Amino acid sequence: MDPVRNPYAPGAGQRPPELAGRDRELADFDVVLERVARGRPERSMVLTGLRGVGKTVLLNALRSAAIGRLWGTGKIEARPDQSLRRPIAGALHMAVRELAPRHRDPERVEAFLGVLKAFALRDAEVSPAKRGRASARAWDPGIDVPAARGRADSGDIEIDLTELLTDAASVATDVGSGIALFLDEMQDLGPADVSALCGACHELSQSGAPLIVVGAGLPHLPAVLSASKSYSERLFRYVRIDRLDRAAADRALRAPAAAEDVEFDEDALKVLYELSDGYPYFVQAYGKVAWDAAPASPITADDVRVAAPEAEAELAVGFFGSRYERATPAERDYMRAMAALGQASDDGPVPTAEVAEHLGRKPSSLSPARDGLIKKGLIFAGERGSVAFTVPHFGRFLRSQPS
Predict the structure, then answer these.
(1) Residues in contact with 210: Cβ distance below 8 Å, sequence separation at least 6, in sequence order
(2) DSSP run (H or E) holding 192
(3) CATH number of this structure's domain 23-240
(4) Can you give the pLDDT at residue 78?
(5) Which residue intervals define the domain Cytochrome c in the entry (predicted)?
(6) CA distance 108 to 285
(7) What's the CATH class of domain 246-324?
(8) How confident is the model at residue 11 (pLDDT cuts 50, 70, 90)?
(9) What is the Cα Rg of the chain in Å?
(10) Which fold has domain 327-400?
(11) How is the chain split into domains, by residue range?
């Protein structure tokens, strides 16, 4: 069939043509937005799940829903080597610019931008006597107003962030709207930034301010937040994003094809689900190659089987292989041991003690490899004393590779 008309999109964070299986999450978020608009108390939200389940896609869809209600929005992707201060300043700047045209008092908006600039320029590692010109030369936040003094510029990120978000929420209140900040890869925030964000969200929730944070991250993110602030277990609404059930996976394949007057037969859909295991990224990857391999509609199970090796080869290089190549030799040995031990449990959590036993090493000697893999986002510490892959089917991929 015509590859130009191929509707499937196996890209990182790229919205599929049919966002199947996420209707409940979208509906629940609409309720959150409406409750906040009416001054009702509501918690910020955290999405968790493995890589490839569509967290970023859903995060973007939720942002679109907020924009549709004329909220101010901004998005951040956390990085382990970057402080939260600058990216959150940029995100808030964008959010307030969206609200500013509807504000009746331009001076009120400018006053907030002055606080925002002070927050952005305040580096906790620079003494008060040395900040100012030196910081401005190092980085310019692009805010064309003088930096304010005495608000959100103490150098304590938790105090400053709380003051900044409170002031931003006040601007949103003035125009009868709200602000939503979307934070991807949230598990990569540093400990101080996690603590500050939790503290600021706690303060906002108590005051009923119209500002919410929607985070997304790996399955261990709730544990990261809880370790920072014990009340985070009650502060956020946690939503686990998992693989699609059979009906949703079929819909993700059928709906885009139907728009192009193409159909799948039932056996083809069955085989596609067995191959993809319902993971949205894999659904798109196998759907794309099945379309290209099929000579005509309907797409059959034989078409899928012929095309499957191409999808597997692409996944082996781009989805699995690129991650494997980031690991050191010691880290690769650790992952191979996990894969060998996880075969019987469908690559579920593996006790770290068993990994050490499999490698004939003391658990303490493997801590650097384990910690390195966690920092690289390749594994996560699930239940106490166990680890698991962040990428679905990664153990299966490792077992298929030559030693």
Answers:
(1) 36, 37, 39, 169, 172, 173, 177, 178, 179
(2) helix 191-207
(3) 3.40.50.300
(4) 94
(5) 173-324
(6) 49
(7) mainly alpha
(8) confident
(9) 24
(10) Arc Repressor Mutant, subunit A (1.10.10)
(11) 23-240, 246-324, 327-400
